[in-house]
Specification:
The structure is a single chain. The chain is built from three helices and eight strands. The chain is α+β, with helices and mostly antiparallel strands and 130 residues long. It has one domain: Trna Endonuclease, Chain: A, domain 1, CATH 3.40.1350. The strands form three sheets. It has a four-stranded mixed sheet with strand order 3-6-7-8. A two-stranded antiparallel ribbon has the order 1-2. 18% of the residues are buried.
């Protein structure tokens, strides 16, 4: 029986060996360029990739709880912490993304951190995308 060919993903995935965050299995090219940016940024002391698992209510009527895994938790040399989600601008207003962002902001308020969604706009401003 012939082997089935593996379906090629439309996303750029792989493993990035970071000096500040260890081994990261990134799920998009945008995540990869941002991880590389964090590694080269002298203001970043360390970061953790997909290290948190936060509960959020996915359906307010039924109260169904799902889990949100934010992309990156960054710790700066100043002691500041920031939870980063990398998401296309067109998806930021989607209901599920809004609910996950609420969970991220709640965790940040309880742990003295800030929450930020990084889209292609911010990546372009940082010079990481054309």
């Amino acid at each position: 029986m012939p082997k089935r060919s593996k379906k090629k993903s439309r996303y750029h995935t792989g493993i990035y060996a970071s000096t500040k965050g260890g081994e990261c299995s990134y799920r998009s090219g945008w995540e990869l360029v941002y991880l590389q940016y964090l590694d080269s940024n002298p203001d970043v002391m360390s970061f953790q990739y997909e290290s948190l698992k936060l509960p959020y209510i996915s359906n307010y009527k039924t109260g169904r709880v799902k889990w949100y895994i934010p992309d990156i938790l960054v710790e700066y040399v100043t002691g500041e912490k920031k939870l980063i989600e990398i998401k296309p601008k067109r998806k930021i207003e989607q209901a599920q993304v809004v609910k996950k962002a609420e969970a991220g902001r709640l965790w940040c308020s309880e742990h003295g951190a800030s929450y930020e969604i990084v889209s292609e706009i911010e990546l372009k401003q940082l010079g990481l995308m054309k």
